[in-house]
């Protein structure tokens, strides 16, 4: 019988990595910025991340999803990673964490 993977623990590792990726125009990581909508981890240790960008015309639209995918793939327990971009719902400042709002002087 194969070893059972703790998807909660793996999810925490993924979030930790996501918090090291910053939007180049805003000094806040993409997780606190609210760009990550969902993280799915299946039993085969494959990860799918549903994320958005601040705008459809975001200058990092081509590079940021690739960076997210590559960094997630560096986690030992991850076999594969895929990033899907969505604009539904569109990103807004309400999606930002309190920490991000504080950092940007919005509180």
From TrEMBL:
Residues 12-85 form the MIP18 family-like domain. It comes from the Bacteria. InterPro entries: Fe-S_Maturation_MIP18, FSCA_dom_sf, MIP18-like, SUF_FeS_clus_asmbl-assoc. SUPFAM superfamilies: Fe-S cluster assembly (FSCA) domain-like. Pfam families: FeS_assembly_P. NCBIfam families: SUF_assoc (TIGR02945). This is SUF system Fe-S cluster assembly protein. It comes from Galbibacter pacificus. The lineage of its organism: Bacteria, Pseudomonadati, Bacteroidota, Flavobacteriia, Flavobacteriales.
């Amino acid at each position: 019988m194969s070893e059972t993977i703790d998807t909660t623990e793996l999810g925490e590792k993924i979030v930790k990595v996501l918090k090291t990726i910053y939007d180049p125009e805003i000094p806040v990581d993409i997780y606190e910025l609210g760009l990550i909508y969902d993280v799915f981890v299946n039993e085969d240790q494959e990860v799918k991340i549903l994320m958005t960008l601040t705008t459809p015309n975001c200058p990092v639209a081509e590079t940021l999803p690739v960076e997210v995918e590559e960094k997630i793939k560096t986690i030992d327990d991850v076999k594969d990673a895929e990033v899907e971009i969505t604009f539904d719902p569109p990103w807004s400042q309400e999606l930002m964490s309190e920490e991000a709002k504080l950092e940007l002087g919005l509180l």
